[in-house]
User: Which sequence fits this backbone?
């Protein structure tokens, strides 16, 4: 997002968990599809995560709490390995991506109010620049450009794709 887009917006702190699942066939990234009735980002593909709450002690605490609430992922299966730079959204969030390794086996239970579906995408697919498509759309009188990563019927875009792109660029640097 560009600086002029957020000048008049008070940003809400939030965190997402970037969960990299270690599978025998290769690493994957665990994602969710949000339910259609949600006020913010309905139906979109997202990482587990959400707004900072006063009892949260850190961005990692927020991400882990939200992952447990949204998909039932126990922190016992999660090892935090780092953080990506804050991601500012045009919808008013200052998101801290918390990168973590998730070790199976684990059982997930989606919160039916927030999460329509939980799925995994191969890490190698998401990190491959050949799968990063450029798109554009009109927003508030301007043409906005964004990256999308369509995968088997899922349209990964917005902040989720932007955060994935940040990690992809960091790993290829």
Assistant:
């Amino acid at each position: 997002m560009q600086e002029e887009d957020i000048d008049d917006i008070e940003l809400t702190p939030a965190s997402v968990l970037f969960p990299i699942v270690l599978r025998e066939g290769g690493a994957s990234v665990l994602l969710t599809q949000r339910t259609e009735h949600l006020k913010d980002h309905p139906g979109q593909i997202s990482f587990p995560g959400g707004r900072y709450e006063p009892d949260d002690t850190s961005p990692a605490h927020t991400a882990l709490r939200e992952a447990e609430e949204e998909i039932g992922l126990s922190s016992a299966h999660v090892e935090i390995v780092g953080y990506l730079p804050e991601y500012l959204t045009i919808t008013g969030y200052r998101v801290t991506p918390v990168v973590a390794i998730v070790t199976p086996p684990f059982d997930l239970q989606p919160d039916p109010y927030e999460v329509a579906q939980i799925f995994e995408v191969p890490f190698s697919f998401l990190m491959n620049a050949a799968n990063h498509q450029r798109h554009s759309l009109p927003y508030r009188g301007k043409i906005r450009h964004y990256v999308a990563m369509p995968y088997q019927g899922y349209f990964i875009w917005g902040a989720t794709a932007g955060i994935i792109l940040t990690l992809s660029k960091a790993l290829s640097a």
